[in-house]
């Protein structure tokens, strides 16, 4: 994959919705980290507090798709933020 400073992607969390209601937000955050490690080869993944709050806002009803922006901070360190569309 070509290296970019900012990379937008949509993360599918459909598998999380099939899990128990009480564990959904925790599993969603773990799945986001796992996907970023797999796609970018990251050793350290930092989540923006806004993204974590959006995912765990209601721990039973997690969105099935979340748009995110992945930014490279350092050597194998990435920051994941919620993608917000500007009008």
Automatic annotation (TrEMBL):
Assigned keywords, A-Z: Ribonucleoprotein, Ribosomal protein
InterPro entries documented for this protein: Ribosomal_eL31, Ribosomal_eL31_dom_sf
SMART domains: Ribosomal_L31e
Keyword Ribosomal protein: yes
A GO biological-process term: translation
GO function terms (MF aspect): structural constituent of ribosome
Entry keyword annotation includes Ribosomal protein: yes
GO cellular component entries: ribonucleoprotein complex; ribosome
Family the UniProt entry places it in: Belongs to the eukaryotic ribosomal protein eL31 family.
UniProt protein name: Large ribosomal subunit protein eL31
